[in-house]
Amino acid sequence: VSENELSSLVRGDVGGSSRCTLAEVSDILANVREFVSKPGGSIANVTRGLASGFGISCNLVGVRGNDEWGVMFQSSMRRAHISTDGMAIK
Known about the structure:
Order of helices and strands: HHHEHE
Helix content: 40-55%
Structural class: alpha+beta
Shape: elongated
Distance between the termini: 35 Å
Low-confidence stretches: none
Strand order of the largest sheet: 1-2
Number of strands: 2
């Protein structure tokens, strides 16, 4: 999204933060052409790199949220061929 397009979608300064309505969020997301998320922190990133980049068998042990972000995180790890059997949901 170009800066002009972004400026037309948000009110206020680009890079700042302000509350927005659900309709505004929906409009912004509808105008974004592509969204790619690689959930997780440094441990998840290293584990993903080891599993998908080097073919090393990896297991992730931890806790994920009981929401759509937690589901997305666990799905991302599984797609990278990382075992999530040791993950709890909280």
